[in-house]
Design brief:
alpha/beta, three-stranded parallel β-sheet, TIM Barrel, six-stranded parallel β-sheet, 12% strand, 15 helices, 44% helix, binds zinc ion, 361 residues, single chain
């Protein structure tokens, strides 16, 4: 079948632009750039400002400032490539991008720490174009607990009253709530607080691999009840327990520890080249297993894609970078998904959640 509209709900590419001076309108040493996105038929992508928690320290510039700089890179990319891309703020922007066949760029943020527990800062980011917020990363915040097991002393069990208020503010501001990385209680609290569908932009199935970042069947059904969407990630460690163990073993080696680069982002690029070379391939069929499981448990209208490109050091076989999304289509068809199902999974479902979020409250 012809490549359907493709929507990737989570990539961490902006840091390559900021820290390595990569012009994403040309060719990147990472996993996503405009030429490869075009080759892969990508129609929309959430470009996430992933802020390492070390930036929370004022001496490192602060998390708010780091997010600002990353989002500046997205603005710069959209300005440099106006023929190919459209930065999405409104439903009208979205409709224009779709009509003109431009890559729809959405500003995302991974982890609420750049908000610095300030509603005014959420409003600031929304005003400058933030449209998707992953509430928490692997570091707990005063208003939300992440899925990491070790709870700090002042961490709420789920979302605090302020956290719930922020979720409702996001609903009002047209910022899509993303519950990937949330602790279990935070996940349910966010769904309860949100008046709109939420997404789990890059999470797989706990039933297929009991990884703390994955969603169990009750959570999948809750997403369905909320009208939301789960974006299946392309990271073997999330998809498969053997791959997870192998990856952990390969990172615990002198070869891996000896890798070096001039900054953290460049180091991830070096680590990716190394890991892709040494990791045994994980079949694309394993990724399709997760798509199928979500479709069976939650319904096909609640499955999407969230590759996590440029946030992952290994990828599933056949999906090395943004030029490779069409490799998913044949295997989905062989599993019995109809053309309509495949179109919904590849982009239609995420589009529905996004448009609901962009709707004026
Ligand atoms: Zn993530």
């Amino acid at each position: 079948m012809e490549t359907p509209f493709l929507f990737d709900a989570h990539v961490d590419t902006l840091q390559l632009s900021l820290d390595m001076g990569v012009n994403l309108a040309q060719t990147s040493p990472g996993q996503l750039d405009l030429p490869r996105a075009r080759a892969g038929g990508l129609g929309a992508v959430v470009m996430t400002a992933w802020v390492h928690p070390r930036y929370c320290k004022p001496e490192n510039g602060g998390a708010f400032q780091r997010a600002e700089l990353l989002l500046d890179e997205l603005d710069g990319l959209a300005q440099r490539a106006p023929e190919q891309t459209k930065l999405i703020r409104t439903q009208a922007d979205w409709n224009e991008a779709r009509a003109q066949g431009k890559l729809a760029l959405l500003a995302g943020m991974e982890g609420g720490h750049p908000l610095e527990a300030s509603e005014a800062k959420l409003e600031h980011f929304a005003e400058r174009g933030l449209r998707v917020l992953t509430l928490v990363w692997n570091n707990h915040l005063p208003w939300i607990r992440s899925c990491e097991p070790d709870a700090g002393p002042d961490v709420p069990a789920g979302l605090s009253a302020f956290g719930r208020h922020l979720v409702r503010r996001m609903n009002e501001l047209g910022v899509l709530v993303d519950v990937s990385h949330s602790g279990t209680r935070s996940f349910y609290d966010a769904l309860e607080a949100s008046t709109k569908p939420v997404i789990a932009s890059h999470s797989a199935c706990f039933a297929l691999n009991p990884h703390r970042r994955n969603l169990d069947d009750d959570q999948l059904r809750a997403i369905a009840g909320n009208g939301g969407v789960v974006g299946v990630p392309f990271l073997p460690s999330f998809l498969d327990s053997d791959a997870q163990a192998t990856s952990a073993r390969l990172r615990d080696t002198d070869d891996y520890r000896g890798l070096a680069a001039s900054n953290g982002t460049e180091l991830e690029v070096v680590r990716t080249a190394h890991m892709q070379a040494v990791m045994p391939p994980l079949s694309i069929q394993r990724l399709i297993d997760h798509i199928q499981h979500i479709a069976e448990v939650a319904g096909v209208e609640h499955v999407g894609l969230g590759s996590d490109y440029d946030g992952i050091t290994t990828t599933v076989e056949g999906l090395p970078d943004a030029s490779s999304y069409p490799a998913l289509i044949g295997p989905m068809g062989e599993r019995g998904f109809s053309r309509e199902d495949i179109a919904a999974i590849c982009g239609g479902n995420m589009e529905r959640a996004l448009l609901a979020s962009l709707e004026a409250s």
